[in-house]
Amino acid sequence: MKTAIIGLGNMGKGLATRLAGKTDLVLAGRDLDAAQAFAAGLKNVKAASVKDAIVAADIVVLATSYGAALELAALPELNGKIVVDISNPVKPDYSGLALGVETSAAEQIQLIAKDARVVKAFNTIFAGLFGQSEASTREVPVFLAGEDAAVDAVATLVEAAGFTVEKTGALDGARLLEPLGMLNIRLGYGLGRGTAIAPNWLALAA
Fold it and tell me: Could you tell me if 174 and 120 are in contact, meaning their C-beta atoms sit under 8 angstroms apart?
């Protein structure tokens, strides 16, 4: 399956670097020249306009802010695609989430992109983890929420990127994952733990 990453901030670039040479990958951002320059430094990665990248792909990763992802969700080119939302709908001052409990960023994106299959993923890890060795991140979970077949497709990307898969059920699980992402942000930035951290679940012996 071909994957498009839309957005070349730290998360988009980090994920692209991890996936380069492991999957059929196309990159897009607001600046096509910048996307082409970055893609040129990666193995077997192409760049395209946002719409062309989406049309060419089976899986579209919206590696953008929540607000930008909402705008992209309205593109008809997303119809029939698996759409990966990595955002956390944080307030402008990062003091908390603008959404929660009764809905989530992922569900709001799904409401707009009605004919796509939205999967929540990658929102509980910092971009800095992509720069670590794959050996050090292999046991770090990426939590997934969404429809089963779409989640299975995204799980393949998670494993190719050097992380482990933690499925959390249907897309309403994003209501739990986004607060978890906010907690990670608070620990990392607000409480000084840094960005080389990630949440995990331990299975203890009975």
Answer: yes
CA 66, CA 33: separation in Å to the nearest integer? 24
Query: pLDDT tens digits, residue range 130-158?
Result: 999 999 999 999 999 999 999 999 999 99
First to last CA, the chain: 41
| Best CA proximity match to 196, nearest among 131, 129, 124, 121 | 129
Decide: 63 and 125 in contact? Cβ < 8 Å: no
The pTM for the full model equals 0.96
Tell me the one-letter amino acid at 200: N
DSSP state of 173: G
Strand pairing report for 117-120 and 82-85: parallel
Helix, strand or coil for residue 45?
strand
pLDDT tens digits, 57-96: 999 999 999 999 999 999 999 999 999 999 999 998 888 9
